[in-house]
C-alpha cells in the first residue's frame, strides 16, 4: 500500500502505532523541526509539504495533489484534515539513522529526504 492511499483514511482515533523496539518517538519540538516549513519526500516519490502557517499538501508521484491543513498535538502526533473531509493522524519516529512516518493503521513509510519549502 502506498502513502497515496492514506488520503482516504478515517478520522483520528486512538492508535496502536505498531512501534518497534528500535523506534524512538519524536517529541513535539522534534516533529515541528522536521515538518514545519519543510517538504518530506518518501521512497515512493510522494511529497508531504508542511507550510509554516498550517497548510498541508501531499503530492503524488503522478503530480496530482491533495490539500488541507495540519496540526501537531502535544504528544507529537501530526493530524491532517483534507479539504475533501477526510483526515488522518501520523506519528514520526527515528529508527536507527532514518526517520519514519507511522500511520494509525501500523504502516511505515521511511523518509528519503527533507528540505525547506
The percent range for strand residues is over 45%
The average pLDDT value, as a whole number, equals 89
**In sequence order, what are the helices and strands, one letter per element?**
EHEEEEEEEE
Rg from Cα: 13 Å
Q: What distance separates the N and C termini? A: 26 Å
Low-confidence stretches: 1-14
Count of strand segments: 9
**Count of DSSP-assigned helices:** 1
Shape: globular
Strand order of the largest sheet: 2-3-4-5-6-7-8-9
Give the arrangement of secondary structure elements.
Blueprint: E1 23-25, H1 28-35, E2 38-42, E3 47-50, E4 55-59, E5 65-72, E6 78-82, E7 87-95, E8 98-103, E9 108-116
Antiparallel strand pairs: 1-7, 2-3, 2-9, 3-4, 4-5, 5-6, 6-7, 7-8, 8-9
Task: Please characterize this protein's 3D structure.
The chain has 117 residues and is mainly beta. 7% of the residues lie in helices and 46% in strands. Strands 2-3-4-5-6-7-8-9 form an eight-stranded antiparallel barrel. The protein is globular and about 35 Å long. The N terminus is likely disordered.
Amino acid at each position: 500500500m502506498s502513502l497515496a492511499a492514506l488520503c482516504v483514511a478515517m478520522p483520528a482515533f486512538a492508535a496502536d502505532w505498531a512501534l518497534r523496539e528500535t523506534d524512538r518517538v519524536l517529541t513535539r519540538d522534534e516533529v515541528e523541526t522536521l515538518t514545519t516549513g519543510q517538504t518530506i519526500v518518501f521512497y515512493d516519490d510522494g511529497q508531504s509539504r508542511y507550510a509554516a502557517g498550517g497548510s498541508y499538501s501531499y503530492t503524488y508521484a503522478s503530480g496530482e495533489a491533495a490539500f488541507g491543513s495540519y496540526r501537531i498535538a502535544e504528544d507529537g502526533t501530526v493530524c491532517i484534515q483534507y479539504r475533501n473531509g477526510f483526515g488522518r493522524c501520523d506519528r514520526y519516529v527515528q529508527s536507527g539513522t532514518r526517520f519514519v512516518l507511522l500511520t494509525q493503521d501500523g504502516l511505515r513509510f521511511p523518509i528519503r529526504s527533507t528540505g525547506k519549502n
